[in-house]
């Protein structure tokens, strides 16, 4: 994992993001994107990430328009199948906004919870960011032991664990992929008020659920995960950064984490 001292500049990072397909021509297919936009607009809780009433204000057409604006997917509603895109400039713009939020949290030494629903790809990036915040003086929230989460809105379930400083969902000795808000809700409900996070750095339902509870939250999301971008547009989520959230080699996210740490001054 790259460190802040090895951080790429903006142009170098954009080149890396496109070359590794974290942004640019990404693997998430257009039909999957449109299906998720439609499901969110219909109120399917699997796609709301804890921002439970989004569908009341966002039609499928409005979701597509916002995703074109904030992520860089094709704005053409007639483009129904094939490839789709993330504008790497928008990814780095999002990273810059996230860096400002991290700098503010570090300056105030706020209690921080770092979590990921994509441990196969994003765990090490989140770990590096958590360690940067801790080194800047932010207390890292500890998840209560034995915290079991039943089947969530995306059918995921298991124990909330921490791998180093990063909260994840675990079951059967394996870390689990989850977009559900229920793990975050379980953590917040189990902690006394004075130990709850004041700032959350995460992705998917971990971020959405925190934002829905009024906690300052930033997070990462893919082209088929519109809820966080809608949440940012409405002010429930501070920052949503567009990226492909599961490229083949998790090490490819290292330069992104290093860029964030450097931009945040951590």
TrEMBL record:
InterPro entries (alphabetical): Phosphatase_SCO2771
Protein name as it appears in the record: Phosphatase
